[in-house]
Specification:
Largest sheet: 6 strands, antiparallel
Low-confidence stretches: 1-8
Mean pLDDT: 93
Number of helices: 10
Shape: globular
Strand content: 15-25%
CATH topology: Jelly Rolls
Organism: Geodia barretti
Cofactor: Fe cation
CATH architecture: Sandwich
Helix content: 25-40%
CATH superfamily: q2cbj1_9rhob like domain
Number of domains: 1
InterPro entries: Phytyl_CoA_dOase-like
Protein name: Phytanoyl-CoA dioxygenase family protein
CATH class: Mainly Beta
Order of helices and strands: EEHEHHEHHEEHEEHHEEEEHH
Oligomer: single chain
Distance between the termini: 45 Å
């Protein structure tokens, strides 16, 4: 895959923007995989920030290092207590370029999350995260075809069969009906509607990788074996939505974020947050 490289000092990534192949992959397959796309400083700085400087995850990882078994992974949503590296991800020049090239410039920051998955954690089954597809209010129906973008970051990577991401490539092209299950898609029942063969892709990515997905695509995560050579997999995610009404998890933006934001960043952050009853 031909990629456009960058030497910009203000970016955490090795690239300045997506190639045409990347853009075609997003529209045809529903995702773009970017292996080893972080700069060395970006990857190492983000790992240090998550594992050593964010106290909740530092303490969680300390229990793992002490040999204590964890029945659950660490998960926080929204992830507001971000340091310099994770904060820069929101409007890094490369991230901005990818979003503009795939969905245009009318979008907002929706929310973020952080996850640490230890050995022995089970799988996460196939699902879609476009919340307007799951509700039938007029506002949901009006927003159903708008983009909901998930940017998945894997600072320490994953191998196939070890808490790896997998997707049904092209499944974003199938209408969201109750009949359109992952099982039937993989059986070929919806190939004609998608205009292609729908196939499972089990990914494997080195440290410092990123996956950019249309949240309409079916995606899943495999289990992390108890004997995995990797003690834990780090995963953080930023989500963006087309400008418009809030999604299910569109977060309240902390006041200090707005106070410190540039005029361009304020365009991403100043929007309505989700509240109970806002769709009805």
């Amino acid at each position: 895959m031909t990629m456009e490289t960058t030497t910009k000092l203000d970016s955490l990534f090795r690239l300045s923007g997506p190639s045409q192949t990347d853009i075609d992959s997003f529209h045809n397959n529903g995702y773009i995989a970017y292996p080893d796309v972080f700069t060395d400083d970006g990857r190492e700085g983000l790992i240090e920030e998550i594992t050593q400087r964010f106290e909740p995850t530092r303490q969680y990882i300390e229990t793992l290092n002490n040999g204590e078994e964890q029945q659950r992974s660490y998960f926080i949503r929204p992830w507001n207590d971000r340091g310099d590296y994770s904060d820069r991800l929101i409007d890094d020049p490369f991230i901005t370029a990818v979003i503009h090239a795939t969905i245009g410039d009318a979008y907002h920051f929706c929310h973020s999350a952080l996850n640490i998955a230890p050995r022995g954690i089970g799988p996460l089954g196939y699902h879609q995260d476009h919340h307007h597809w799951k509700h039938e209010n007029p506002i949901n129906l009006a927003e159903r075809d708008n983009y909901y973008i998930q940017i998945l970051y894997y600072p320490n990577g994953f191998t196939r069969g070890d808490r790896n991401l997998k997707v049904i490539s092209g499944s974003h092209k199938v209408a969201p009906t109750k009949e359109a299950t992952p099982e039937r898609m993989l059986a070929g029942d919806f190939d004609a509607e998608a205009g292609r063969k729908l196939e499972e892709k089990r990914l494997e990515l080195p440290p410092g990788s990123m996956v950019y997905i249309d949240a309409r695509i079916f995606h899943a995560v495999e289990a992390k074996p108890i004997d995995s050579p990797q003690p834990y997999r780090i995963f953080n995610i930023d989500i963006f939505k087309e400008a418009g009404p809030p999604h299910r998890y569109t977060q309240e933006i902390p006041a200090e974020w707005i106070e410190c934001a540039s005029p361009e960043r304020k365009k991403l952050l100043i929007r309505d947050a989700y509240t109970e009853g806002c769709w009805s």
